[in-house]
Amino acid sequence: MSSWMNMEKFLREYVYQVETDFSVDGESASWAPTRDRPAHRFWDDEDDKIDLRFSNNESSRLSSFAVSHDEKYVAYSDGSIVGVSNIETRAQRTLFRGLTLPCVNLMFSPALNESGGYTLLLLQSSLYPVMSEMNDFLNIGPESPLLEMVRQGYLKTLEKLRASVESRNLPNIPGCTSGFGSNPSTSDGRLFLYLIQNETTQSGSRPAAELPKVIVHDVVNNRLLHTLSGHEDAIMWTAFSPNDQYIATAAWDGTFRIYNVSSGDCKHIIGPTGGQCWSGAWSPDSKHILLSGMTDEGEGEGFRNNTFVAVYSVETAQQINRFKHERLRSWVRCVAWSPKGDIAIVHETNLWIWDPFENEIVSEFSLKIDDRMMGGFAGFRKVQWVNNGDVLIVRAGDGTVEVWDRVGNTKYRLQRPKGSGIERDIRAVQWIQKDKTLRTLSSDGFMRMYRFA
């Protein structure tokens, strides 16, 4: 067993291996039938790719991506610049440099403004006026260190000016969004959730007015609709219900809350559980909710608290069933409720498909890990249902992507090859069911297409 581990060492030494494969009624999934290309592919064996980089600099890294709801456009950012390109034509439609703070996330909203989109203004300027003035009055040449100081100051001033002009007509939201599978937007995109004062109180208490709060923002009218209070520690997860009637939250104060969207009133407080609360998922009909966190019921191996994953009735706040498994020993922060009614629960290198009403595991998937320290890096990072719940996509810590079609009980895999020098990070994936194509968006600035049909 390794005495230490970091990402570079993990990627150099790790070999992806499946211990338990997906199954239906006890029959393991088989490789999907394909015509020209195998169902088991590897990185850089793509059929096509789109260059989204802002320059040809190979060291330039993209940090966030989003694909529009109609799958026509992709937005991408390196933190300081945001671009939007047409996926079909590959034409860059927008380039926005007016960021006064780094971009950490991107999300398309179904709500459109009156013109059906956005217009961004880019400004360009020259240093020649400053250089001319310095020569005329101070007799300083263009290579002078003093001129370089003025040049840098002038560039910063121009950057601030450009940012102000470019962003003057854009809504400015003074907060942050939550993570762990949060859904901060209503189905029509008219309302949006963000957090303010969301620093933890574990280092010291604060007055109620300074505690974390959820802001419900009306995107269409650009106004604050509600301020949701009550949590006493950092809020980790927020989500609108599919019918847009409720908002659920999970926080480190050990409670989950359900609010009414129309009034902003708190309908239920579930907890305290005795430990930090992390995430959740709504049922497709909005009548139930899965909540995950930690509880003080006993001692878990290597952890102070035991893992808590349970389904509740939204109407009564009564627990329906609680998921339990011998391998469940730490946080569950990645879950997805299928339109078919069952739930994908990810925990380290394990994934279970759980029927919450029958309280039974209908399928599972796990990786073979001999080194516990390596397992911390190999664990699943993202799980999502697509194609109305018929297809499950799960992304592992090394970047390998599994696609399981449970209707035909067939599978596809896009695997990271073993070895160093392949540290490209897949930030997002998208499955196109009609032509069995997997799109990957990577930090090296490329969208790659792997066609399995």
UniProtKB/TrEMBL annotation:
The keyword Repeat applies. Keywords: Repeat, WD repeat. The keyword Repeat applies. PROSITE patterns: WD_REPEATS_2, WD_REPEATS_REGION. Pfam families: WD40. WD repeats lie at residues 228-269. This is Anaphase-promoting complex subunit 4 WD40 domain-containing protein.
